[in-house]
Amino acid sequence: MKRRDFLKLAAGVAAAAVSSCAEGRITAPASVHHTSARKGEATVFLAGVGRGSGEDAVRRAVRAAAEAATDFSWLSRGDSVFIKPVLNSGNPYPATTSPQAIGAMIELLRDKGAGRVVVGDMSGIEHVKLSPDKLSGSSRRLMEASGMARAVLAAGGELHFFEEAGWDAFHEEAPASPSHWKTGIMMPDILKEMDHIVLMPRCARHVLAGSTLGLKAVVGYWRTDTRLEYHREASTLQEKTAEGNTVETLRTKQRLVVAAADKILATFGPDDGYVFEPETGLVIASTSLIAHDMVSLAWLLENRQVMPSSEKDGFMDTSRMVARVGNRYVVSMLGGIGQALLSETFTKDDIRTVWDDRVLMHACRISGGVPEIVIEPVNGELHDGLRKRLTEATSLPA
């Protein structure tokens, strides 16, 4: 049974038993809403993309936003760059990273002097499962189905899929201390060979976490046993998401975050949902992952407000019970029914504002505070009203 079909069944049971699980009745714990610590400015660069303006416009916007966000002084001629997309399934953008954005970034890195540019990921447990002595599914086939693989190869990039290297092609890294992780995080060995990392997520809803942006993309690096702990110790899944981004490889090698968000997966997620295409879409770029995600989440929330109400998934999209049952289902796929029975209770948060997101708030705490977001447009497509709304949505309340 596919995850969406399973969760539809769970939704029916939950709706009959627990009518109080609708989004309006859920609130995140007060302790995660705000952190008083503040840090310096972090700039997020936005390139506008008009609806229906075509692939070339997206590619130009990606280049413009990336070149505004960094001068690429970190990139020496011949350096290797690993691009981490989001390939949770084989579904097309925005369920996965935009092929046009990936192709544009590879071409830009080549123009700046990069040698090898490698694009890779390992898809979700519904599609790919790696064990010490067994492998089922293929991230390669999923990347081909999404259209991403063709874009990578056409732009001169290489493909890499973590499961194809095998169980032993991972190494252990420790998140920053203190953390909620009980064991180390198993990261792919190929990252040791690479000089730099560029993260290329998408802007999407997530049935469990509420959203899937840049911080959540870290799960794609992890071996199956790390993913099992992540979902089984479910009471701190949000905090572990933030902490997973503090391993040494990501702290020292990740240079840039760029996301095409001219299309939004506005409901359900991460694989399926309603695709909303705003009149003016965005490409979001920053050297700060937290700042990127704050703006990207504000953009997701804005589009969820203005999308057609008839397309909202309603109870299934917002139910705490559906998320709780769904997480246990993921644990069973990762480790079997015994592990699912041992799983902690997962709590889905009602994310109405940036400040309700436990992943983001914990990332701010462990990084020293909330950045002051500065939003800079890089082309003439971004109107002042949108810039103002996103600035207000990401400004720390008094």
From TrEMBL:
Signal peptide: none annotated. InterPro entries: DUF362, TAT_signal. Residues 81-297 form the DUF362 domain. This is DUF362 domain-containing protein. It comes from anaerobic digester metagenome. The lineage of its organism: unclassified sequences, metagenomes, ecological metagenomes.
